[in-house]
Amino acid sequence: MATVAQRYSHIPPRPPLWFTLAWVGGFGAIAGFLGAQGQGVLMLPYLLAGIVVAVALALLSVCVLKTRALAGSVCAVAMLVPGWAMIGLGYGVFITVIGFIIGRMSIWLSSGDYRLNQPPYASTGEVLWFYTFRFICGLIFLFLISPIIILIPLSFNVEPYFSFTDGMLSLEPGAYSLRWYADIFRNGMAAPDAVAGWWSDMWNNAQWVRSVRNSFFIGICATLLATGLGTLAAIGLSRSEMPCRRPIMALLISPMIVPLVIIASGMFFMFSDVGIAKTYVGLIVAHAVLGTPFVIITVTATLVGFDQSLTQAAANMGAGPLRTFFKVQMPLILPGVISGALFAFITSFDELVVVLQLASAEQRTIPRRMFSGIREQISPTILAVATILVLISVMLLTAVELLRHRSERLRGISAG
C-alpha cells in the first residue's frame, strides 16, 4: 500500500514566507515605477511605496484571507478607495487592478501552485526560466500591441489633440466624446433637409464614407479574383506530375518578396499602355496580384493533409473532374480557401503604395485618405478610422484562426 508521502507526492511543497514577500515586493516596485512615470514625479518614493504596500497586502492575503478569490477581491477594494481619493478615478482603477493581481499572486506563490505545471524533478533554475521566458514574451507582445491599444481611447478624446488630457486620465465623462466618429460621416457634407437626402448625400459626398465604399468594393472584387486564381494555382502545384513546381511557386509568391514600390511602378507603366491605369479595373487587378500569394500559401498548406485517394475513389465511382472538385475536394479545403481569401482582403484593405501610383481622386481608399489627412490636415478623425480598421482586422484574424482550427480537425478526420 502506498504511503501518505507517495499518495500526495504530486502536491508541490509550500515555499517559505520570505519567498512570497520577495516576489510580490518586486512586483510592487514595478507598479510603483509605472505610477511614478504616469504622474511625472520622483521615482524613489513611489518605488518604496509600491514595495511596502505590496508586502503588506501579501501578508494580509497569506496570513488572514488564505483563498485566492477572497484575497483578490479584498486587495482590489483596499487599493481602490485610497487611490480614488488621493489620485483620481483613472489611477484608482489602475491600482485596483494592481491590488487584485497582488492578492491572487500572493496565494498562488505561497501555496506552491506555481509548480503545478512543472515536472516534479524541475530545479529552481528551470522553474525560474520557465516563467522568465513567458514574461519576456509578454513584454514583447505588449511592446508590439501598445501603439494599437493607445489609439482606441484617444479616438474618444473630446479635444482635437493626439494626447491624453487630464480629464481622460481622471476618467471624467465629459472628456470623452464620439465627435470624431460622427465626423467620418459629415466630413465635407452640407446638412440636408430630409433623412433620405441626408443618407444619399452622406453616401455619395462624405470623403471618409466614399473612401470606405471604395476600399470595400476594390477589396471584395480583388479578393474574389485572387481566391479563384490562387486556389486553382495551389491545386495544380499540389499535383506530383506538375513540371517545374518550385520555379512556378517562387514566381507566383514573388509579389510578397519584391518591394511594393517596384511592383507599383511596373504596374503603372504596364497598365498605362493597356489603358486601365487610374481606373477601378486597374486597382482590382493590382490588389488581386498582391493577394494571390496568400491564397496560394494557405490552400497549399491545406492540401498537404489532403488524401488524394478520395479523388481517385470519386473518379472510380464515375464522378467527373468538376463534380469531384466541388463535392469531394472543395469541402475539405474550404477552410484554407476562406483563410486565404481573408488574408487577400486584408492585404487589399490596408494597401497604400499601389494606390498612391495607380488610383485617381475617385478611387481613393481608406489608407490613401488617411495618408492625405496626415499630410494636409491632422485631425483625430484619423484615430477614429484607425480604431474601426483595427476592429475589422481583429474580427477577420479571429475568423482566420477559427477556420485554421476547423481545417486541422477536418484533416485529422480525413487522415483517420
Distance between the termini: 42 Å
CATH C-level name of the largest domain: Mainly Alpha
Helix content: over 70%
Secondary-structure element order, N to C: HHHHHHHHHHHHHHHHHH
What is the CATH fold-level name of the largest domain? MetI-like fold
CATH architecture of the largest domain: Orthogonal Bundle
Number of domains: 3
Low-confidence stretches: 4-8, 188-205
Q: Proportion of β residues?
A: under 5%
Look at the structure and name the CATH superfamily of the largest domain: MetI-like
Describe this structure in words.
27% of the residues are buried. Helix 3 packs across helix 5, helix 4 packs antiparallel against helix 5 and helix 9 packs across helix 10. About 6% of the residues have low confidence. The protein is 76% helix and 0% strand. It has three domains: 114 residues; 33 residues; 221 residues, MetI-like fold. It is mainly α. It contains 18 helices and no strands.
